[in-house]
Amino acid sequence: MKPKIMNLKEEVQLYQPYNEQEEKDKALLLRCLEKEDNLFTRDNDLVHLTASCWITNKSMDKVLMCYHKIYDSWSWLGGHADGEEDLLKVALKEAKEESGLENIKPYDGKIFSLESLTVDGHIKRGVYVSSHIHLNVTYLLVADEEEELKIKEDENSGLRWFTLDEAIKASSEPWFVSHIYPKLNAKLREMK
After folding, report:
1. Distance between CA atoms of 121 and 129, rounded to whole angstroms?
2. Cα–Cα distance for residue pair 17/20, rounded to 1 Å
3. Contact in structure between 88 and 131 (CB atoms under 8 Å)
4. What is the 3-state secondary structure (H, E, C) of the chain?
5. What does the pLDDT profile of the chain (192 residues) look like in tens digits?
6. Domains of the chain (ranges plus CATH)?
7. Separation of alpha carbons 161 and 55, rounded Å
8. Which residues pair with residue 80 across a beta bridge?
9. Which partner from 3, 93, 97, 185 sits 20 to 30 angstroms from 151, CA to CA?
10. Which residues contact 52 (CB under 8 A, 6 or more apart)?
C-alpha cells in the first residue's frame, strides 16, 4: 500500500518555525489556506503560492544563485505553483528549468523555510503585474557544483555558485539580505 502523501496544509502545520518571522508567516499561510481561493494559481492576484529552493553543493559550503532579470539581483531559484499542489515538485521543476541542472535532489523533501514575500508591481513579458504577496515555501536541494549550468534567458542572465557569505553580499534585495538568506545559511550551517 502506498503511503499517504501529505497535503500542504498538513506539512505546514507540522513545520517547526525557525524564528519569529517564520512563526508569523506560518500563521498567515495557514489562514490563507483556510480562507483564500485559488492560492495555487495566479488567478488570486492578491496572494498566491510559490516555491523556492536553496540549492547547496554536496559539501554544503556553497549555494547556487541566478541573476534574476526582474529583480536585477542575485537571487535564489523558484517560481509559482501555477496549479501544482506539490510545492516540492514545483521547486525541483523550477530549479532544473532555471539552472539547466539535471542531477538535483531534495535534501530530505521537507519544508526548509517559510516566507511571506511582498512583490512590487512590475512588467513581465510586456504586461504589468500589480503588487502582491507570495506565500513561499522553500526546500533545500542538493546538486553537483561541477555539473554544467545553463542560463534561462527569459528569466535570468547569470548562474553562479557562491560561498554562503558571498551569496548574501551578492544580493541587492534588502529584505533578502537582512532576513532571508542569512536565515537559510544559518539553518544550513546547523546541519553540518
Report:
1. 5
2. 7
3. no
4. CCCCCCCHHHHHHHCCCCCHHHHHHHHHHHHHHHHCCCCCCCCCCCEEEEEEEEEECCCCCEEEEEEECCCCEEECEEEECCCCCCHHHHHHHHHHHHHCCCCEEEEEEEEEEEEEEEECCEEECCEEECCEEEEEEEEEEEECCCCCCCCCCCCEEEEEEEEHHHHHHHCCCHHHHHHHHHHHHHHHHHHC
5. 344 456 999 999 999 999 999 999 999 999 999 999 999 999 999 999 999 999 999 999 999 999 998 889 999 999 999 999 999 999 999 999 999 999 999 999 999 999 999 999 988 889 999 999 999 999 999 999 999 999 999 889 999 999 999 999 999 999 999 999 999 999 999 997
6. 8-191 (3.90.79.10)
7. 9
8. 50
9. 185
10. 76, 77, 78, 91, 94, 115, 136, 137, 138, 139
- First-to-last CA distance in the chain? 35
Q: Three cell numbers at 52?
A: 523556492
Provide CB contacts within 8 A for 163, sequence distance 6+.
61, 62
∠ Cα 89 91 92 (to 5°): 65
Residue count of the chain: 192
The whole-angstrom separation of Cα 117 and Cα 131 is 11
The contacts of residue 190 (CB under 8 Å, 6+ apart) are none
